[in-house]
């Protein structure tokens, strides 16, 4: 990887992360100069990163006006949820078959960190460890490449999930309860229960979307 490519990727990952966490708010104009200052990266890598983000539907370019953070595409988020549910149910079956004490401890550590985030009311740590739990299950199933593919194609879902974490009235404990139940099924190597719980867990978006949309109505399109 050349220095130029490395800087572009660094800019891309940083801006994408800010989009997911709504640090760059949906619908707001993007200042290339401000990005240069905050990321300490030159204009060319920033512009190339914005082009990449535009190709992924995360940045909109309006002629004679500039670049804007795209609204969250609810259709795209729902489609990503659908794909993830059907993939992850199979992943959990494979995870059950490959579970052992070492892998159990990995999941225990992540759940412990997520519990700590709940007690500290640390939304970013909670969200990060939520993703780590699922990523670890893909790794246990030896499907890291599938997880990477999902990460590259589910940004609108990630944006929705972050707003869910930040929405008052939607308790984090609900997610923790389901993680504990799923952990129990995995460690007992009960594929039928793990399959059911995975489907239940990934239906949370559908069950809670009205509350999220009502709280952040200006952040979405295709409602």
UniProtKB/TrEMBL annotation:
<keyword id="KW-0805">Transcription regulation</keyword>
<dbReference type="InterPro" id="IPR000524">
    <property type="entry name" value="Tscrpt_reg_HTH_GntR"/>
</dbReference>
<dbReference type="InterPro" id="IPR036388">
    <property type="entry name" value="WH-like_DNA-bd_sf"/>
</dbReference>
<dbReference type="InterPro" id="IPR036390">
    <property type="entry name" value="WH_DNA-bd_sf"/>
</dbReference>
<feature type="domain" description="HTH gntR-type">
    <location>
        <begin position="5"/>
        <end position="72"/>
    </location>
</feature>
<dbReference type="GO" id="GO:0003677">
    <property type="term" value="F:DNA binding"/>
</dbReference>
<dbReference type="GO" id="GO:0003700">
    <property type="term" value="F:DNA-binding transcription factor activity"/>
</dbReference>
<keyword id="KW-0238">DNA-binding</keyword>
<keyword id="KW-0804">Transcription</keyword>
<dbReference type="InterPro" id="IPR008920">
    <property type="entry name" value="TF_FadR/GntR_C"/>
</dbReference>
<dbReference type="Pfam" id="PF00392">
    <property type="entry name" value="GntR"/>
</dbReference>
<protein>
    <submittedName>
        <fullName>GntR family transcriptional regulator</fullName>
    </submittedName>
</protein>
<dbReference type="Pfam" id="PF07729">
    <property type="entry name" value="FCD"/>
</dbReference>
<dbReference type="InterPro" id="IPR011711">
    <property type="entry name" value="GntR_C"/>
</dbReference>
């Amino acid at each position: 990887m050349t220095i130029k490519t490395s800087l572009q990727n660094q800019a891309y990952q940083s801006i994408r992360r800010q989009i997911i966490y709504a640090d760059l708010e949906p619908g707001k104009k993007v200042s290339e100069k401000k990005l240069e200052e905050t990321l300490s990266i030159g204009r060319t890598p920033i512009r190339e990163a914005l082009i990449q983000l535009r190709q992924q539907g995360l940045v909109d370019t309006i002629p004679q006006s500039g670049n804007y953070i795209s609204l969250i595409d609810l259709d795209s988020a729902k489609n990503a949820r659908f794909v993830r549910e059907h993939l992850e149910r199979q992943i959990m079956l494979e995870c059950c078959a490959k579970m052992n004490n070492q892998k159990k401890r990995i999941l225990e550590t992540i759940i412990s960190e997520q519990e700590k985030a709940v007690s500290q009311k640390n939304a970013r740590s909670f969200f990060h460890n939520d993703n780590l739990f699922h990523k670890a299950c893909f790794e246990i199933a030896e499907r890291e490449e599938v997880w990477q593919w999902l990460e590259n194609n589910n940004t609108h879902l990630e944006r929705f999930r972050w707003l869910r974490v930040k929405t008052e009235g939607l308790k984090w404990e609900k997610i923790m309860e389901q993680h504990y139940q799923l952990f129990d099924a995995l460690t007992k190597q009960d594929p039928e229960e793990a399959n059911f719980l995975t489907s239940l867990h990934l239906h949370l978006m559908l069950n809670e979307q009205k509350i999220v949309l009502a709280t952040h109505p200006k952040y979405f399109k295709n409602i």
